[in-house]
Amino acid sequence: MPLRELLSTHYNIQVEEKISLNGKEGYRQGNQFYFTTTNDNREVILMEQAAVAYYFMENDHKQITMPIPNLYGEWFSSIADKSYMVFQVQQLNQEQRQTAGKALATFHQLGSNYRYEPKNISSYGAWKELWIDKLTVFETKIEQEAKLHPTAYYRLLMDSFPYIIGLSENAIQYIQESDQDQRFHQVDQGTITFKRYVNQLHEPIIWSEDLVYDHPVRDIAEYIRHQFLTNEPNEKVTSFLLDYQELRPLSVFSWRLIYGRLLYPIPIFDLIARGFVSEGFDQLYIDLVNFFEQQTIYENRLRGFFQSVGVDTDTWDIPVIQWLM
After folding, report:
1. Do the beta carbons of residue 193 and residue 213 sit within 8 Å?
2. Which of 69, 122, 187, 284 could be a cystine partner for 153, CB 3.0 to 4.6 Å?
3. Signal sequence span per UniProt (predicted)?
4. What's the CA gap between 219 and 325, in Å, rounded?
5. Residue 306 — pLDDT band, cuts 50, 70, 90?
6. Average pLDDT, the chain
7. What are the C-alpha distances in Å from 310 to residues 110, 238, 264?
8. Listed residue (191, 179, 154) closest to 272, CA to CA
9. Tell me, what's the pLDDT at 59?
10. What is the dihedral of CA 276, 282, 283, 287, to 10 degrees?
């Protein structure tokens, strides 16, 4: 059933115009916008994200997607063996009143005041265990998929996976050691973050499906990673961090977590996960080759990270990975 018909039949919403934002199909009715997502056995996750979305909407983030009930008061509408949730956006974000750093710090401050700690969307304090589990599961799954699909993509992935394991184990060990560091303070408490932050706060819409609960440096590290991978100058990263710290100064513990997360090769795991549900192996092969080409540049950027942002690792007793030196 098309989204237009779904909105009319189950929500009594007569839309005026079809739109597309961030590759997602939606519709406009007056000043409001509507999108949908499939359930995919994510009821508990979607409802936790819904509660977070309502909290942010009530605190002046009108551009966030909020689930709305259907005519029967239900959050999910079942059609042709599929279950859908409909999201409403009250107002698009059309101006940037804050810099990237200040916008994220403000968002994190608001998120840290959220009354409840979500359980099903939380990664707070669990990076090491989650990364170990992911590495184990992916290693087994890759071997299985490579046998089913003996393509150039999987041959390259199998050949390079020992390198990926090495990167991952370095990051896991670094996080394990950092977890013992007691130099933390108030801003190290959990907050609402994004799965992969690439400056979404300056986009027209915040997608509530992107929200999770974690340490705030998750977003900081992912923003920095994106700047490195898109070859943005160091000055942009430094400016972002200075602006962020005007509102929320980073502890030594936070700096260590940022570095540890930047060590972990999250983009390659995202790419591999995409390969598990797609058979576009030619494009996956190209993307994998590009990843390894970018990785050399990325490691060079990471090598000089602390120095470029004015962090004296000797004075602060912050360890760095020797193979990057």
Report:
1. yes
2. 284
3. none
4. 25
5. very high
6. 92
7. 27, 8, 22
8. 154
9. 94
10. 80
From its phi and psi, is residue 309 left (phi > 0), alpha (psi between -120 and 50) or beta? alpha
Among the residue ranges 3-12, 52-61, 117-126, 291-300, the one predicted with the least confidence is 3-12
Q: Around Cβ 118, how many Cβ atoms within 10 Å?
A: 21
The per-residue b/e assignment along 7-43, b for 16 or more CB within 10 angstroms, e otherwise, is: beebbebebeeeeeeeeeebbeeeeebbbbbebeebe
Q: How many residues does the chain have?
A: 325
Fold of 3-92: Phosphorylase Kinase; domain 1 (3.30.200)
C-alpha span between 175 and 139 (Å, rounded): 21
Pairing of strands 17-21, 32-38: unpaired
The token pair at 43 is 């009821």
Q: Into which CATH architecture does domain 114-324 fall? A: Alpha-Beta Complex (3.90)
**DSSP 8-state code for residue 264:** S
- Written as one letter, the residue type at 230 is T
Question: 99-132, pLDDT tens digit by residue?
Answer: 999 999 999 999 999 988 999 999 999 999 999 9
Residue 308 CB contacts under 8 Å (≥ 6 apart), including other chains: 234, 237, 238
Q: How confident is the model at residue 324 (pLDDT cuts 50, 70, 90)?
A: low
Q: State the pTM of this model.
A: 0.94
Which residue spans of the chain are classified as CATH 3.30.200.20? 3-92
What is the Cα–Cα distance from 172 to 170, expressed in whole angstroms? Answer: 6
Query: Among 170, 173, 209, which residue's Cα sits nearest to residue 67?
Result: 209
